[in-house]
Amino acid sequence: MESTQALYQPKFKPVDRSTYDCLKERLPNSLFRKNRERLFALFHKKVETKQGDFALLRGASEVPLYNSDVSYPEYQEAFFYYLFGAVEMDCYGLVDLHNDHAILFVPRLDNLYKIWMTVMTKEESAVFYDLEVRYIDEMESTLQQF
Could you say which of 9, 16, 101, 138 would form a disulfide bridge with 96 (CB–CB 3.0 to 4.6 Å)? Predict the structure, then answer.
């Protein structure tokens, strides 16, 4: 008689932890685009919008641990990740409620940061997130256009 363990074959492939990537790497940008489209559709059902109506959202910020160069573990705000898919800290998102358009604002990091982390330009971020991206220091001029 065969053992029950030999008969049981799982129908899924176990995750190889040595190659496990960040969850964001696995979720397609189309998911976040659909989330924004869903927000726009639900918003238009309830509220009549006019030109210049927008929402400015702030993502999570890095919190330093005491007086050291170490930070608490970073987790993006759920609502921000849901709409933009951004995992970087200190980002802002603008949602143009009238024209159904979104803009992600990312910090402009100095080249010194390249020593210990990946620094993307706004053009690289735009490709990575499949979204219009601008630097935070461009936010004031962008808001004046509304």
Answer: 101
